[in-house]
Description:
The chain has one domain (3-139): Histidine kinase-like ATPase, C-terminal domain (Heat Shock Protein 90), CATH 3.30.565.10. It is 32% helix and 28% strand. The chain has three helices and five strands, in the order βααββαββ. The radius of gyration is 16 Å and the shape is globular. The model has no long low-confidence stretch (mean pLDDT 90).
Amino acid sequence: xxxxxxxxxxxxxxxxxxxxxxxxxxxxxxxxxxxxxxxxxxxxxxxxxxxxxxxxxxxxxxxxxxxxxxxxxxxxxxxxxxxxxxxxxxxxxxxxxxxxxxxxxxxxxxxxxxxxxxxxxxxxxxxxxxxxxxxxxxxxxxxxx
Length: 145
């Protein structure tokens, strides 16, 4: 049987940081190895920051809802928001940014979706009833005492 928990917060930088910290704390309490939690934190932070920076850009920040479901082999993290949908209803490809350029021409962004795709085993996205539903799957080996 899967262990689950949920939390929500307002899509602001400060509240997102607190929400991500709470999720990470709960994942550690569930027995997920520290290195894997650190990787999940990177992908989760990238995804949530995209909500804050893009889905609610130019709007009053709404809620971000996170639901985590852990079974013995995998962790699903569902992120929901009522912000703008992804362009054309599609997730970014997540190609690695070109870093073979002079230092002063290195891209400022473009790494987030590449990292998310590298750290997850599955990603699903749908727009449903005015809400974005992004699901990230991570392969996990839970260590319990």
